[in-house]
Write a structure and sequence with these properties.
With 507 residues, the chain is of the alpha/beta class. It folds into three domains: 1-24 and 65-149, no CATH class; 151-286, no CATH class; 314-489, Fe-S hydro-lyase, tartrate dehydratase beta-type, catalytic domain (fumarase, Alpha-Beta Barrel), CATH 3.20.130. The protein has helices at 6-22, 26-38, 42-61, 90-102, 151-154, 168-175, 197-207, 214-220, 225-238, 346-357, 397-405, 420-428, 441-445, 485-506, and strands at 3-5, 71-79, 83-85, 114-115, 122-123, 131-137, 142-149, 158-162, 187-194, 253-261, 268-275, 281-286, 314-317, 334-343, 370-372, 411-414, 432-435, 448-455, 464-478.
């Protein structure tokens, strides 16, 4: 009879969360490396370079790949012959592991979980509780799949109840463009088909835990309907030309996973959930012999590359920048920013706009300033700030016009595309919106030389800070004329890919 100890569960979950915070899975590193080697779009290749350099830096420095260290999802399979040496429930053991994993002083992870999601939205500060799915099976072991899923990719999950004769492939291809770039492609798409609405979503999430094997599947050929669907979706999603960070390119997905389940004759529930370029998950088994052990990837798995800026880069001094200066920036330009910028995300923007609408004086002067949409990880040791990658700019779209017209901002930095509402406000005010690379949080943090709290300390990681930066790399996403790289880039590359496919078919 296998005896599983409470302390082994807690320690294993805590260690797993630390491990996946700074180590990509090896199959994911290899797939990203292959995408980087094949990419022909300069903008997309530059973004992939930053992601891979950041990934290796995190593996060496043992700091988070992304500032959004995720909501914890645990799939646990319990053998019926297992006995427990514990005074806590299994869920409590797992949550204690999460608590210890996220508050480890050597590698603090950001707490992103809020209670009362439609109320006070108070941060639990230790990232508990996890979302736990438990299965009871035959056997004498306990298996865990532990994942940390970022909010940007979770926000892009889609579900539909199709009619039985409807095409799953057509539906997926219709929703992927609507996801934009907030899920930080390239990544993996998980598709769930069948069961009931909640089962389809669970199937999609479970599928994301499977090994990446698309190139092996293409080489040997499909032997089942689901494998045929995977290959078709992989090829057709990449043909959309969305590319890394939505900038346009050859690779939008590294793999597509599909799981199905029997369903009612009248139904065809379908779900799709993306995994981002900060994919984080690990599998381990407890058999009574002690806590799990985790083997780091060999550093040779990463390509030997450096992030270097070309001659086309524009160096910008934020401390002397005037409103009219940003009108010379063009969509697609690479900038290196130095000087002082402000920070703020959803909660701060809501408070600021509420104050503007009430005619109250703002706590910070935003005139001719740039704001960075970021919620960084707390610093450790001699760090100025922990990993500090961008959050999705689209969520700030509804605040953009008052922040430009009433607060006086001239520039914004986030990730992903801006919507029509924000683009119109940017064009009307001759402002600019830029992106930093999602999934390169540790690399970005190295450009931050000083951090000062200015307002709303009660918001924690969402408070307003002033960062001093030196050579922080960004790309102009929307320029003062309203031109957007997230519209133009995929349009160019989808046509390029279509032309190549047609040329192959003709020959």
């Amino acid at each position: 009879m296998t005896v599983i100890k409470q302390d082994d569960v807690i320690a294993s979950v805590a260690d797993a969360l630390q491990f996946i915070s700074y180590y990509h899975p090896v199959d994911f590193i290899r797939a990203m490396r292959g995408a980087w080697e094949a990419e022909e779009s300069p903008a997309a290749k530059g973004a992939l370079t930053q992601v891979l350099v950041n990934s290796r830096m995190c593996a060496v420095g043992k700091r988070p790949i992304c500032q959004d260290t995720g909501i914890v999802i645990v799939f646990v399979t319990v053998g019926m012959d297992v006995q427990w040496q514990a005074d806590m429930s299994l869920e409590d053991m797992i949550n204690e592991g999460v608590r210890r994993g996220y508050t480890n002083p050597d590698n603090l992870l950001r707490g992103s979980v809020l209670i009362e999601p439609d109320g006070a939205r108070a941060n639990t500060k230790d990232n508990t509780p996890a979302v736990i799915h438990t299965r009871i099976v035959s056997g004498d072991k306990v298996e865990f799949e532990v994942a940390a899923k970022g909010g940007g990719s979770e926000a892009k999950a889609k579900f539909a109840m199709l009619n039985p004769a409807d095409s799953v492939v057509d539906w997926v291809l219709s929703v992927v463009p609507s996801m934009g770039a907030g899920w930080c492609p390239p990544g993996v798409l998980g598709v769930g088909v069948g069961g009931t609405p909640e089962k389809a979503m669970l199937l999609a999430k479970e599928s994301l835990m499977e090994p990446l094997d698309m190139h092996e599947l293409q080489s040997r050929g499909a032997s089942t309907h689901l494998e045929e669907m995977r290959i078709e979706l992989f090829e057709k999603v990449n043909a959309l030309g969305i590319g890394a960070q939505g900038l346009g390119g050859l690779t939008t997905v590294l793999d597509v996973k599909v799981k199905d389940y029997p369903t009612h004759a009248a139904n065809k529930p379908v779900a799709v959930i993306p995994n981002c370029s900060a994919t984080r998950h690990v599998h381990f088994t407890l058999d009574g012999s002690g806590p799990a052990e985790f083997t780091p990837p060999d550093l040779a798995e990463w390509p030997d590359i450096k992030f270097e800026m070309g001659d086309e880069v524009k160096r910008v001094n934020l401390d002397t920048l005037a409103a009219e200066d940003v009108q010379s920036f063009r969509a697609g330009d690479t900038l290196l920013l130095s000087g002082k910028m402000l920070t703020g995300r959803d909660a701060a923007h809501k408070k600021l706009v509420d104050m503007i609408n009430a005619g109250e004086e703002l706590p910070v002067d935003f005139t001719n300033r740039f704001i960075y949409y970021v919620g960084p990880v707390d610093p450790v040791r001699d760090e100025v700030v922990g990993p500090a990658g961008p959050t999705t700019g689209t969520r700030m779209d509804k605040f953009t016009r008052p922040m430009l017209e009433s607060a006086g901002l001239i520039g914004m930095i986030g990730k992903a595309e801006r919507g029509p509402e924000a683009i119109a406000a940017i064009k009307d005010n001759k402002a600019v919106s830029m992106i930093a690379v999602g999934g390169a949080a540790y690399l970005v943090a190295k450009a931050i030389t000083k951090s000062t709290l200015l307002a709303f300390p009660e918001l924690g990681m969402e408070a307003i800070y002033e960062f001093e930066v030196k050579n922080m790399p960004v790309t102009v996403a929307v320029d003062s004329t309203g031109r957007s790289v997230h519209i133009e880039g995929p349009k160019i590359w989808s046509k390029e890919i279509a032309d190549r496919i047609l040329a192959r078919e003709v020959s």
